[in-house]
Design a protein that fits this description.
heterodimer, A: 114 residues, alpha+beta, 5 helices, B: 222 residues
């Protein structure tokens, strides 16, 4: 018999993936950053970072600008308006989950799962 | 319950809020090599002002020390090559911590009174007040908000510089008391503040290089 508490809010799965969360967290802290910086600060491989950025761009979360400087491609990334709102919503959801977990830990409502 | 064998894909992501905060402040506040350049100018200017005094060498020395600021053209390009492009948001300076300011003032006043008492009692040839400079560096370690991000390398740099400044501070106790040595010693003291700023800048730069490992050169996308 399981007592499942009232449904927890679900964080956005697009954001909640660790690599994408890292990228979006970095972009939330700045106006813009380029591919090299994102690779250095997240520790992701080039391929993985490329894929994740492509996913985020397709979802409309980031805006990518590519330019050729000194015969090398520089990709600059920044959060779109949609991305900013989505991140705010994501952190609100996580705060709510934490608040409910704290309430559970304080004994308000049991949670037994077999 | 049967144990499941799962394949866990770990992504080497280690974003800490503190790490991001440091990187943001380092870029927005022009820390690291910018501090080193500013500190070098302050050190050279202070040295020259004390050593050359009214001599005609003073003007070319001062003029030459301004050349350090040409590094402000080179540093941004180097940062872009080394770290990539990062455009920080404007940072809001935190409200001053009144308690910390009061403690700092009390410590400085206390050190001043102690040094003057020692000088009146023992009449050393060295200026005891200089101990403030070499104590400031270990103090930097204690009050540094980024303590958790520092490594033994930064700590070693601070200790070495503090020891060197302390030795310079008490140098007249061992040096012959002739005018030339004393003039050089006074000039070195004039560079203390610049050396402090350079040390802080160097520590920040070392921390930055550790938090942002060098990416492999080449085209961005595989």
């Amino acid at each position: 018999m399981s007592d499942i508490p009232c449904q927890l809010p679900a964080p956005d799965r697009l954001i909640h993936e660790p690599a994408r969360l890292a990228i979006l967290t970095v972009l939330s802290s700045c106006v813009a950053a380029d591919f090299v910086f994102l690779q250095g600060v997240t520790g992701l491989s080039k391929g993985n970072l490329s894929v994740q950025l492509a996913n985020l761009e397709q979802a409309g979360m980031v805006i990518m600008t590519r330019e050729i400087i000194d015969k090398k491609t520089r990709t600059t990334v920044r959060l779109s308006d949609r991305g900013v709102k989505a991140m705010e919503e994501y952190w609100r959801t996580m705060d709510e989950i934490r608040a409910r977990a704290d309430n559970g830990a304080n004994g308000r409502g049991s949670r037994r799962v077999k | 319950m049967a144990s499941e064998q799962t394949t866990v894909t770990t992504i080497p992501v280690s974003i800490l809020a503190l790490r991001l905060k440091f990187i943001t402040e380092a870029f927005a506040g022009l820390r690291g090599l910018y501090f080193v350049a500013c500190g070098a100018w302050v050190a050279l200017f202070g040295f020259g002002t004390t050593y050359w005094g009214e001599s005609w060498w003073r003007s070319p020395w001062d003029f030459g020390s301004y050349a350090i600021f040409f590094s402000f053209f080179w540093i941004p390009r180097y940062y872009t090559r080394r770290f990539g492009v990062f455009r920080p948001k404007p940072i809001r300076l935190p409200a001053p911590n009144k308690k910390a300011i009061l403690v700092a003032v009390l410590i400085l006043v206390g050190l001043y009174l102690i040094s003057k008492t020692l000088e009146r009692t023992f009449h050393p040839r060295a200026e005891v007040i200089d101990l403030i400079y070499f104590l400031a560096l270990p103090g930097f370690i204690l009050v540094d908000p980024w303590r958790k991000l520092r490594s033994m390398v930064e700590f070693t740099v601070v200790v070495i510089v503090a020891v060197v400044l302390a030795l310079v501070a008490v140098l007249p106790l061992w040096l012959p008391s002739n005018a030339e040595w004393l003039a050089l010693w006074k000039a070195l003291r004039g560079a203390y503040l610049g050396i402090l700023i350079m040390t802080i800048g160097l520590c920040d730069y070392i921390t930055l290089t550790r938090l942002l490992p060098k990416a492999v050169a080449g085209d961005e996308h595989e």
